[in-house]
Design goal:
The complex is a heterodimer of chains A (about 575) and B (about 375). Chain A is of the alpha/beta class. Chain A is built from 19 helices and 24 strands. In chain A, strand 9 and strand 10 form a beta hairpin. The radius of gyration of chain B is 28 Å and the shape is elongated. Helices cover about 65% and strands about 5% of the residues of chain B. The relative contact order of chain B is 0.12. With about 375 residues, chain B is an alpha/beta fold. Chain B has 14 helices and 4 strands. Chain B folds into 2 domains: about 240 residues, no CATH class; about 100 residues, abc type-2 transporter like fold. Classes of the chains: A alpha/beta (about 575), B alpha/beta (about 375). Chains A and B meet through helix 2, strand 6, helix 3 and helix 5 of A and helix 1 and helix 8 of B.
């Protein structure tokens, strides 16, 4: 390719001799005038590759040439030619919008009349003109992202590197950013956009799909999904117990991947194989089988060889009984000074249901979640877990719930068994009961071979299993999960949700917080949280139905989110 | 070193970094705390809280056989400002108090006190001190000896028996005639404060850039190492000078420490030391990636050696040779020496010139190390 902006040749990057390389023998090129997606789960090597292209790291082997400059020894010229937005946007939070812009303009030598016109253009472009005096730290996630982009754009770079620009940003801002990026490529700028959201790959003209430091695929993402045409099916309508159906379907060798998608089950068959009959899948005759539009994720999983098949036998202990709505929130409100973080939030979760709190960072999800765990006292309102009031009897109520934090709160320096014993002790299990409890989860999560290993050194999937094992040690009837699988690779995510599905099948009630639309697909019902308020509650389908229109016949959950937020704001005005 | 350092400095970029850094310092309460509140607190602590002068030492006076002579001595002991005197006729009465630390020592006048005095024999006086606090114990013994000899003189004079006072010692303490420990503690604490501000503040502001991920965006611009370092140095140097002003004003007007040298020497000498402290902070920041580690390192590398090996609290000359050698590489020890000289003696070139030369040399070495260690890359 003659117009290649970046030429990567047999690149290897290792951080230590002993560990596997972060980038392993990558050869690729990136063109100008288009968006190249750098797609892959956390730990795939995306950020390392970004930093290599930005001249912030040197290759261990091979070469990277950006805009004609070798990153190993021509960083000065390189830095004149590129714009780079690191994760968390690289903004000084204690400087105002204008001060941030001025700083980067000075550093990049954008001065005088050129500066005035650039500022004017960028402030209009990012719609930040009204907020020039505001401290960057006080901006919303979406506005920070735009400011970060503006700072990277100051000197009209030939190559713009955006490292996970959409993390923690609400879907509306995310769409705006894509619109802005499309405008830039029209002017001939080359953009590299790294992301762990596989659905974003479909917005890119080219993708480099990374997994464990290696490129799985390079080229047009549509070519990747095109291979999947005719291999993706939705089972919907009256399908009976969807979790049992999925479990059965996955036993068939033809099915290489299967996930829950709201009330439907999504199945992918192997190359050249036909979908087994409804009876063979274990689906009732009343079920509808339709062809589904392949998604990038289907192709990604197929490329990795499909979902690992393992049948899970989870002895969930005693089957929970009692109140039909084990989790209740009644008009929860939390104010911090004059700021209302959560406003009059009410919902009920039925026994054996997966319920999602969905919303962007800063919407009030975490505040609500903390109130539901009894970690934060609401300004007004009530909440109960398994019939116990969280604020009248907090200790007893907390004993009824299991909690798995976002970044698995495990002790990395303790072995798997020591972690299990510690958490069993923390839940007040002693003697024979501790023995039974630890044995039960060791068997359920196949932890036996890893018992002596330090938790910190486990692969991600096992860390996640261990964290879940610790959370359910005391057989809680209610389980709270905080962004359990965001950024996790699709295979690990599927495995995790198979555990959750098995637990739900035995009557456990689950609440999940997430800003990740894919995670919401696993939920039976979701509540959309936006700016401290709950703006809609319903099944994913019901929410999608609300925004279905002639222009949008097949809305995604993200479309639903955006549509509902817009109509909510329309009502408010 | 990357190519961007060899490209020459840009005043515009340096100015932009200095402005940015200054705005951050002004908006960050913690740097103002380190810059102003910490000096004030440390100075108050060292100036008022810590003192090596024992006033009102509790002493038990045991008089086995009261006589006019013993009563006379007892009165003279009680009349000095140094003692809290309690009397008893038997030493046993005070043993518990001495063990419990309620008394710092015992003065025992034996039964034949008056007789031995009359004979001109060695006097029947015994001093027992609580050696678990050697500092107070040696002070106490000094004071009691002083009180004893002055009483003997007084007695001899009263009796017209001048010949009996054999040795007449008149000690003179130069530079600090009142022997107030504050006079050398306050200059010492100024050294500690400058060390703290210079190293801690600088180490914190750089590691903060790492912690918040802003360094990545900065390194991807044409900024060079030297520009980055100057940008960090200038505002913190200014903050250090402000703290110095606070310290000097407090020393002169709150603690009434005399300034025998010139203000110019004081400011110039302090500025040089401040640069050494800042360069230590910068060197720390090339290794520390989090503010927590940076502050721990600043404490260990700058504060602790400054406290123990600068000769400000503990006499370096009485340390074993390896520790004396170590104190020779502690910048604060030169600064303390110079500062005490400027305050209490004057602009003494024989002290100030070598100290200044060593500090300048240290800063050159430290800056060179920092320059080589400052990474333009993340790996």
């Amino acid at each position: 390719m003659s117009d290649a902006l970046v030429v990567i040749d047999r690149l290897v990057k290792r951080f230590a001799e002993t560990s596997p390389p972060a980038i392993d023998d990558l050869t690729a090129s990136i063109a100008s005038g288009r968006v190249t997606g750098l797609v892959g789960p956390d730990g795939a090597g995306k950020t390392t590759l970004m930093r290599l292209m930005a001249g912030l790291m040197t290759p261990s082997q091979g070469s990277v040439v950006v805009c004609g400059f070798n990153v190993a020894d021509q960083t000065a010229q390189l830095h004149e030619a590129i714009g780079y937005m690191p994760q968390r946007f690289g903004l000084y939070e204690d400087l105002s919008v204008l001060e941030n812009l001025t700083l980067y303009a000075d550093l990049r030598g954008v001065i005088g009349a050129q500066r005035r016109s650039t500022f004017e253009k960028l402030l209009a472009f990012t719609d930040l003109a009204r907020f020039t005096g505001r401290l960057a730290g006080d901006l919303s996630g979406g506005m920070k992202q735009k400011l970060g982009l503006a700072c990277a754009m100051l000197k009209s770079p030939r190559l713009l590197l955006l490292d996970e620009p959409s993390v923690g940003v609400d879907p509306i801002s995310r769409r705006e950013l894509w619109r802005m990026v499309y405008q830039l490529i029209a002017d001939g700028v080359g953009v590299v956009w790294s992301t762990s959201y596989l659905d974003e790959a479909e917005n890119c003209a080219d993708v480099i799909v990374l997994n464990a430091g290696r490129a799985l695929f390079q080229g047009d993402p549509k070519a990747m999904t095109a291979d999947m045409a005719g291999r993706v099916f939705l089972l919907r309508g009256d399908i009976g117990d969807k979790r049992a159906l999925l479990k059965n379907a996955l036993k068939r060798h033809e099915i290489i991947d299967g996930v829950m998608q709201g009330a439907s089950v999504r199945l992918v068959v192997g190359e050249g194989l036909a979908l087994p009959s409804k009876a063979d899948l274990g689906a009732p005759d009343s079920a509808d089988v339709v062809n589904a539009q392949p998604r990038f994720e289907d192709a990604f999983v197929a490329m990795l060889g499909g979902q690992p098949k393992r049948t899970l036998t989870l002895d969930a202990g005693t089957k929970p009984t009692g109140t039909p709505t084990p989790v209740q929130a009644v008009a929860l409100t939390k104010r911090f000074g004059t700021f209302t973080a959560a406003n009059n939030i009410s919902f009920e979760i039925r026994r054996g249901e997966i319920f999602g709190l969905l919303g962007p960072n800063g919407a009030g999800k975490s505040t609500t979640f903390k109130m539901m765990c009894g970690l934060l006292r609401p300004t007004s309102g009530k909440a109960s877990v398994d019939g116990l009031d969280l604020y009248a009897a907090p200790a007893a109520a907390r004993g009824r719930l299991g909690y798995m934090a976002q970044k698995f709160s495990l002790y990395g320096d303790l072995s798997v068994l020591q972690n299990l014993n510690f958490f069993a002790g923390a839940y007040g299990l002693g003697g024979a009961r501790r023995q039974t409890a630890t044995q039960r989860v060791i068997a359920a999560f196949d932890l036996e071979p890893h018992l002596g290993a330090n938790a910190g050194g486990l692969p991600l999937g096992f860390k996640q299993r261990l964290a879940l094992a610790c959370a359910i040690m005391h057989e809680p009837p209610v389980l709270f999960l905080d962004e359990p699988t965001s950024g996790v690779d699709p295979l690990t995510r599927r495995e995790f949700w198979s555990f959750i599905n098995a637990m739900v099948a035995t009557g456990t009630t689950v609440m999940v917080t997430t800003h990740f639309m894919d995670e919401a697909e696993y939920c039976d019902r979701v509540a959309l949280i936006y700016r401290g308020a709950c703006i809609a509650i319903g099944t994913p389908e019901a929410l999608q139905d609300k925004v279905r229109s002639a222009e949008l016949p097949n809305p995604t959950l993200e479309d639903a989110f955006i549509g509902l937020v817009q109509s909510h704001e329309g009502d408010a005005e | 070193m990357s190519a961007s350092t060899s490209k020459g400095l840009s005043l515009r970029r340096i100015r932009a970094l200095v402005i940015k850094e200054s705005l951050q310092v002004l908006r960050d309460p913690s740097s103002l705390v380190v810059g102003f509140l910490l000096p004030a607190l440390l100075l108050l602590l060292f100036g008022f809280g810590i003192s090596f002068d024992a006033t009102r030492v509790s002493v038990g006076l045991v008089i086995e056989k009261p006589s006019p002579e013993t009563a006379w001595f007892a009165t003279s002991l009680s009349n000095t400002p140094f003692f809290n005197v309690r009397q008893a006729s038997d030493g046993l009465a005070f043993v518990d108090d001495l063990a419990a630390g309620r008394l710092n020592g015992l003065v025992k006048l034996s039964g034949d006190f008056a007789e031995r005095l009359a004979r001109g024999d060695t006097a029947g006086i015994q001093l027992i001190t609580d050696g678990s606090d050697p500092n107070t114990a040696s002070l106490l013994s000094g004071y009691v000896q002083g009180a004893w000899s002055s009483w003997l003189q007084q007695r001899a004079l009263t009796k017209g028996d001048v010949a009996k006072t054999t040795i007449d010692m008149n000690p003179r303490y130069w530079y600090n005639p009142e022997l107030e420990s504050r006079r050398f503690l306050v200059p010492g604490s100024i050294a500690l404060i400058q060390m703290m501000i210079g190293s801690l503040l600088t180490a914190l502001v750089v590691s903060r850039e790492w912690e918040r991920g802003t360094i990545e965006a900065l390194l991807a611009t044409p900024v060079g190492t030297v520009e980055f370092i100057i940008g960090k140095l200038v505002p913190n140097f200014a903050l250090g000078l402000c703290a110095m002003a606070v310290c000097i004003l407090a020393a002169l007007f709150v603690f009434q420490i005399p300034l025998r040298g010139s203000l110019l020497a004081l400011i110039g000498f302090t500025s040089i030391f401040l640069i050494v402290a800042l360069s230590i902070g910068l060197l720390i920041s090339t290794v520390a990636r989090t503010q927590f580690i940076a502050s721990q390192m600043a404490l260990l590398v700058a504060f602790m050696p400054g406290l123990y090996f600068s000769g400000f609290l503990f006499e370096v000359a009485s340390m074993p040779a390896p520790l004396r050698a170590f104190s020779a590489i502690v910048p604060a020890s030169y600064y303390v020496r110079g500062l005490q000289t400027i305050f209490l003696v004057g602009d003494l070139p024989s002290v100030l010139v070598p100290c200044t030369a060593i500090l300048v040399f240290m800063s050159v070495v430290l800056f060179t190390l920092t320059g080589f260690n400052t990474r333009q890359r993340l790996d």
